Amino acid sequence: MLEAFFNNAELQIMLVGAMVGTASSLVGTFLVLRGNSMLSDAISHSIVFGIVVVWLLTHHQSGPVQLIGAALTGLLTVFLTELLASTRRMKQDAAIGLVFPALFSIGVLLLNVYANDVHIDTHTVLLGEIGFVWLDTVEVLGYHVPQAVVSMTIMLTLNLIFVGAFFKELKLSTFDPALAKALGFAPGVLFYALLMLTSSTAVAAFDAVGAVLFIAFAIVPPAAAYLLTDRVWLMLALGTLISTAASVSGYYIAVQWDVSIGGMMAVMTGVFLLLAFIAGPRYGIISQRLRRHRARGLAAG
């Protein structure tokens, strides 16, 4: 039964999409709540620099070393961003706009100069190809399992453990960092740990789905969930459901229309965000208009 499951290309593609979406939305939820959504974009692009540097030093294209290199690059991105923002001569979004293009461009230059004959390219990093994840397999307990499933299982487990173990601390440091610091929760350490997991999730996902789909999963499902609820735990659950629904529906629509699978998955996250924006029970356009209409009726009466 398991062998048939792992040999089913359709199920493996949708499984990888759902796992990437869930792992990304777990960390992305807290970035959205902090107002740092663009950091996921910055990190996903700047890790090209870390990947190339690690390859130049170790000649490893994947594995724990690459995860560590990507995580450190993500921290470097945030450190440089905050360093520029601390000068008070520019806002944080402007600092992000300066730092990640610089690191990304340096990574691309190093890639073209020193690693032009290696199977690492900007197209793979940015776009990936989720439709082929079932071809790259490793043997696990006698079964040939897609490499992307193995790597994303590890990252999803790490993200779940981190969010589950530090849920209260993450919530408090997100909404009231001063109180969290006063209570000894070290919000700065939690934030950097969150960014390290974000970087690691990005590099684990990029070979299968690319940075663009990772960004979509890290930002859009949590943003859609934010329009549906004010509870953080429910926001995490809804983000997972939206990511899974976008992966499944995106796959079938892409096959039906003969278009990019990863691209359609990203489009479907936007569709669910639009639905939440229009028909959300509290913040949706329809519900807000109905409340205003009832308020005018009561005032008139």
Structural overview:
This protein is mainly α. It has a single domain (2-215), classed as ABC transporter involved in vitamin B12 uptake, BtuC, CATH 1.10.3470. Helix content is 80%, strand content 3%. The chain has a two-stranded antiparallel ribbon. A hairpin with a 2-residue loop joins strand 1 (137-140) and strand 2. Helix 2 (9-34) runs parallel beside helix 7, helix 4 (64-86) crosses helix 5 and helix 7 packs across helix 10 (187-226). 43% of the residues are buried.
Summarize, please.
The protein has 301 residues and is mainly alpha-helical. 80% of the residues lie in helices and 3% in strands.
Largest β-sheet summary = 2 strands, antiparallel
Count of discrete alpha- or pi-helical segments spanning 4 or more residues: 13
Please estimate the helix content: over 70%
How many individual domains? 1
**H/E topology pattern:** HHHHHHEEHHHHHHH
Based on Cα principal axes, name the global outline: globular
CATH topology description? ABC transporter involved in vitamin B12 uptake, BtuC
Mean pLDDT score: 86
At the fourth CATH level, what is the homologous superfamily?
Answer: ABC transporter involved in vitamin B12 uptake, BtuC
The strand count comes to 2
Under the CATH scheme, the architecture is Orthogonal Bundle
Beginning-to-end CA distance, first to last residue = 66 Å
How large a portion of the residues is in β-strands, by DSSP E?
Answer: under 5%
